Amino acid sequence: MDQLLEQFLHCLTVEKGLSKNTTDAYNHGLTRFFIHLRGKGVQEIREVDKFHIRGFLLALRRKNLNTKSIVRDLAAIRSFFRFLIQEGILQSNPAEELDSPKVARTLPEILTLKEIEQILEQPDPQTPLGIRDRAMLEMLYATGMRVSELTQLPTHQVNLEAGYVLVYGKGSKERIIPLGSEALKWVTVYLKTARGPLLKRKESPSLFVNRSGKGMSRQRFWKTLKEYGRRAGLRKRITPHLLRHSFASHLLERGADLRSVQMMLGHVDISTTQIYTHVAGERLKKIHKQYHPRG
Q1: How many CA atoms lie within 13 A of 287 on its CB side?
Q2: CB-hemisphere CA count at 13 Å for 170?
Q3: 147 in Cβ contact with 221 (< 8 Å)
Q4: pLDDT at 72 over 70
């Protein structure tokens, strides 16, 4: 089974072009599934039936794993068995008949414009690291890109003259996102004054580099953002995805159409983007209740 898993993950990465985060999640879920199967005495993939899979999902529930994780593991199992059918190893998919658990759609938390500005003001513009951080924060909020897209962004994909950034998202899908004047200003300042000192005569394809001249990691940026949120005195859990949520919600609040926001976020299905219309709607209700004389 382990050899088949390696072949499947290779297919996801090389042929389907899925991100490392996605393949890692599938790998984790399937490894957990295989451990469960071996505990039940199952050694061959051909022995697996829908009752084994159902038993695995029940075991995850007993461990109080959240529903999203269970749904993701079931999706990984389904995809794995589809791969085995395509390769001629199996004739049927025992996971296809199983229904996915219903995931309650919770409205994403967002930051207010004032809170965004408080975070943006935290980096020290007198230091190369501070200028880099300000440029990264401005770009993240201006584009709504994922943190992995930001930290892995090559310099040549930023067009300062035209004012846009070219992003390759999930499944290597390409999208173009406008930068906006503030992000454009700070990225320009970073390239002119801070990137060179951070590189220390080294070379890197990455737009944003650390003090060693290497590309930024997602974890490092997440910790940096968290620290700026703490300095700003915000009690919310500050994450890169929170800025992405705020980007989408603020656009819709100000009249942007859903399709445009979908394109900028890189969502394949517009239903994923539609949740932000609910966020905007709830916010408008609060404003109406607060300020309307008969609210």
Answers
A1: 8
A2: 13
A3: yes
A4: yes
Closest CA to 98 of 47, 49, 37, 32: 49
Domains defined for the chain, CATH in brackets = 2-86 (1.10.150.130), 113-291 (1.10.443.10)
Condensed to tens digits (0 to 9), the pLDDT of residues 192-208 reads 999 999 998 889 999 99
Beta-sheet pairing, 174-178 with 158-159: unpaired
DSSP character string of 148-183: HHHHT-BGGGEETTTTEEEEE-GGG-EEEEE--HHH
Q: Position 253: which residue type?
A: E
CA dihedral 133, 135, 137, 138 (to 10 degrees): 160
Measuring CA to CA, which residue among 147, 125, 158, 156 is closest to residue 243? Answer: 147
Per-residue pLDDT reduced to its tens digit, 127-153: 999 999 999 999 999 999 989 899 999
Evaluate if residue 109 carries a pLDDT over 90: no
Report the Cα–Cα distance between both ends of the chain, in Å, rounded: 61
Gap between the Cα atoms of 184 and 182, Å rounded: 5
CA separation for the pair 72, 280 (Å, rounded): 28
Whole-angstrom CA distances from 172 to 12, 92, 111, 192, 245 are 12, 30, 29, 30, 22
pTM exceeds 0.70: no
Which positions are annotated as active-site residues?
A: 146, 170, 241, 244, 267, 276
